[in-house]
Amino acid sequence: MKFRAFEVMKFWGFFCAAIFFVPNLGANSLILDENSTQIAQIYKIEISNSAKICEISLRSNPTTGYSWEISIENDDKIALISQEFKQDKAPKNFVGVGGKEIFRFKGILKGEASVKFRYQRPWEKSAADEIEIKFEIDEKLNPQVKEISQKK
């Protein structure tokens, strides 16, 4: 009987954790609509804002040949200032380890801009995934994520 009670408790613990999961959207991020929040959870997108910089982290594994390529619409409003890959922790000399690509953007002019992220291999024409993130740049030039959409 004790074993069964433990299984029930374990199930409800996982169930409650799944219901109350909220992605890390940073302290200064706008509240995203339900669709944008779902996409952020699926892609494990992390968004953080600090000192007029918006940082977007996307899961990636360049050992497969794939990486996130970006194109900026309204590049007079927002600019990419850095891009880097951080590998997940793994045993020494372990190969094929994924991680996340981190993109840092800064606002240039007040207004709206969007960035399209395409997860693809450079030698292929089609992308495995496409995400668009729309930004609102305020009067202090702080870029805030307004919406996240996925091309299907």
Element layout with pairings:
Blueprint: H1 2-19, H2 34-42, E1 46-50, E2 53-60, E3 67-73, E4 78-87, E5 99-107, E6 111-120, E7 129-137, E8 143-150
Antiparallel strand pairs: 1-2, 2-5, 3-6, 4-5, 6-7, 7-8
Main traits of this protein?
single chain; 152 residues; alpha+beta; Immunoglobulin-like; 4-stranded antiparallel beta sheet; 2 helices; 8 strands; 43% strand; globular; disordered N terminus
Structural features, described:
This protein is an alpha+beta fold and 152 residues long. It has one domain (2-150): Immunoglobulin-like (Sandwich). Helix content is 18%, strand content 43%. It has a four-stranded antiparallel beta sheet with strand order 1-2-5-4, with no helix packed on it. Strands 3-6-7-8 form a four-stranded antiparallel beta sheet. Strand 1 and strand 2 form a beta hairpin. The radius of gyration is 18 Å and the shape is globular.
How many structural domains?
Answer: 1
**At the first level of CATH, what is the class?**
Mainly Beta
Major beta sheet, strand line-up: 1-2-5-4
- Global mean pLDDT: 78
- Give the number of helices: 2
Terminal CA distance? 48 Å
Find the structural class using helix and strand composition. Answer: alpha+beta
Fraction of residues in β-strands: 35-45%
CA gyration radius, whole angstroms:
18 Å
Estimate the helix proportion, in percent. Answer: 10-25%
CATH T-level fold name = Immunoglobulin-like
Apparent shape = globular
Sheet bearing the most strands, described? 4 strands, antiparallel
Low-confidence stretches: 1-30
Number of strands: 8
What's the SSE pattern?
HHEEEEEEEE
